[in-house]
TrEMBL record:
This is phosphoserine transaminase. GO terms for molecular function: O-phospho-L-serine:2-oxoglutarate aminotransferase activity; pyridoxal phosphate binding. Residues 46-356 form the Aminotransferase class V domain. It is an enzyme of class 2 (transferase). InterPro entries: Aminotrans_V_dom, Pser_aminoTfrase, PyrdxlP-dep_Trfase, PyrdxlP-dep_Trfase_major, PyrdxlP-dep_Trfase_small. One of its GO terms (biological process) is L-serine biosynthetic process.
Length: 421
């Protein structure tokens, strides 16, 4: 296995085909039928990602004259009563859905999750924490990005680093090299590349009293996360809650303070400035994503909240894992420990994924699914193999019907080619 082809290598492709969906969708396995009877693409995109069609229909109806305000949300002033009401709905439904305790503040920061990669060290590694390092549990590509950003501002202690950069598993907390005096501990609860998820963070590995920060971009709202045991949880909006552009942040109130802030930082990273601004709005938010997010959270509560979405995530991902595990080696995942197998991304290859014949099969699978069937975003990163692999994304709002189509195609493909291996 080549060590320079690690998890951070990205494929250089643009997903999808130039043939319009209307010309492909008469084929079997090219679409699902939505709740209103219309054909919907097999959307496996990881950012942005599928949203509930019922919410999209409601948004379309309410877009031009949002909440009877006489204006659309995308031309609404951010300091108007209609938008303040939307912000209140967005926060209260998000709090209710996740059962967020009063000890924690909620913010809808601009700049996606990536800006919080910088905001966390800027707010927590200065002042009384000056000179302390920060612990980063390494679990894949996104923890590498978070680490890279933090290391621009202070010293980072990499916990449980995989020298090959593959991260198909995470060692137990008893083996972590945690710095006991660090300013905070950071981990990523789901890495979208290799399909690894940490749903059961090992709190034993955390020195007493050390603030715990989690990038839960890929899986917040998909399982019952213990919010009170975390100090900062942040999540890109475009996967499980809304369209892109904002970061859902849950921060323990006493951490929003000048006492551990660095002396200089961009205002957009300054949690205190946002906290002290009227209605926690410092500059113009991504109003349309906040609005859509309010409707999505309300819809999620109506559906049955986290227990409903967790059960769905298990059932949906098992459609593929069961087929892979019973395929007698035709299909193979990289993460094999059930504890760490992601319910958000099922990432796999065919056979070894490296021999000429297996690579040819992977390419045939990808070509048929992408070009002939018009599936969106099925090709994935090489993961140390030197060749692209196959990734199926299924955040909260991925219809199970989409994954059933994927499963049926995988079954047919295997039946056609199993003897060729
Ligand atoms: C785990 C994780 N963190 C952070 C991000 C980046 O989020 P954003 O694009 O909102 O900055 C992503 C993907 O988009 C992700 O999967």
């Amino acid at each position: 296995m080549s060590t320079n082809l690690h998890a951070a290598n990205a494929p250089s492709h643009v997903a999808g085909t130039k043939t319009p969906f209307s010309k492909l969708n008469s084929k079997p396995l090219s679409h699902i039928v939505g709740p209103d009877g219309s054909k919907r693409a097999i959307n496996l995109c990881a950012g942005q990602a599928a949203l509930p069609q019922e919410v999209l229909e409601r948004a379309a109806r309410e877009f031009v004259n949002t909440d009877g305000s006489g204006t659309s949300v995308c031309e609404m002033g951010y300091r108007t009563q209609p938008f303040h009401r939307i912000m209140e709905r967005a926060e209260s439904s998000f709090r209710k859905l996740l059962n967020i305790p009063d000890t924690h503040e909620v913010h809808f920061f601009n700049g996606g999750a990536t800006l919080q990669f910088a905001a966390i060290p800027l707010n927590l590694m200065g002042g009384e924490n000056e000179g302390k390092c920060a612990n980063y549990l390494m679990s894949g590509h996104w923890s590498e990005k978070a680490r890279n950003e933090a290391s621009q501002f202070g010293e980072v202690n990499e916990v449980a680093k995989d020298p090959a950069g593959l991260y198909f598993s995470v060692p137990p907390a008893s083996e972590w090299n945690t710095d006991k005096d660090a300013a905070y501990f950071h981990y990523t609860s789901a890495d979208t590349r290799q399909g690894l998820e940490i749903r059961d963070f090992d709190f034993e590995g955390l020195p007493e009293g050390m603030p715990l920060c989690c990038d839960a971009s890929a899986n917040l709202g998909t399982f019952p996360m213990d919010i009170a045991k975390h100090d900062v949880i942040y999540s890109a909006s475009h996967k499980n809650f809304s369209a892109s552009g904002i970061c859902y942040a849950i921060i323990r109130k006493d951490l929003i303070s000048r006492k551990n802030q660095m002396k200089a930082m961009p205002t957009m990273c300054n949690w205190v400035k946002f906290q002290e601004a009227p209605n926690k709005i410092y500059n113009v938010p991504v109003l349309t994503s906040v609005w859509l997010g309010a409707m999505v959270c309300e819809y999620m509560i109506e559906k049955g909240g986290i227990p409903y979405y967790e059960a769905l995530a298990i059932k949906r991902s098992n459609l593929l894992y069961d087929l892979i595990d019973s395929s007698q080696g035709f299909y193979r995942t990289f993460v094999t420990d059930v504890k760490f197998r992601s319910r958000m991304q099922v990432v796999f290859t065919i056979g070894s994924g490296t021999s000429d014949s297996d690579v040819a099969l992977v390419e045939e699978f990808l070509r048929e699914a992408n070009d002939d069937l018009g599936w969106l975003d099925i090709r994935s990163h090489p993961l140390g193999l030197g060749h692209d692999v196959i990734r199926v994304t299924m955040y909260n709002h991925q219809p199970i019907e989409t994954i059933t189509v994927v499963r049926d195609y995988m079954q047919q493909f295997m039946e056609k080619h199993a003897t060729a291996m």
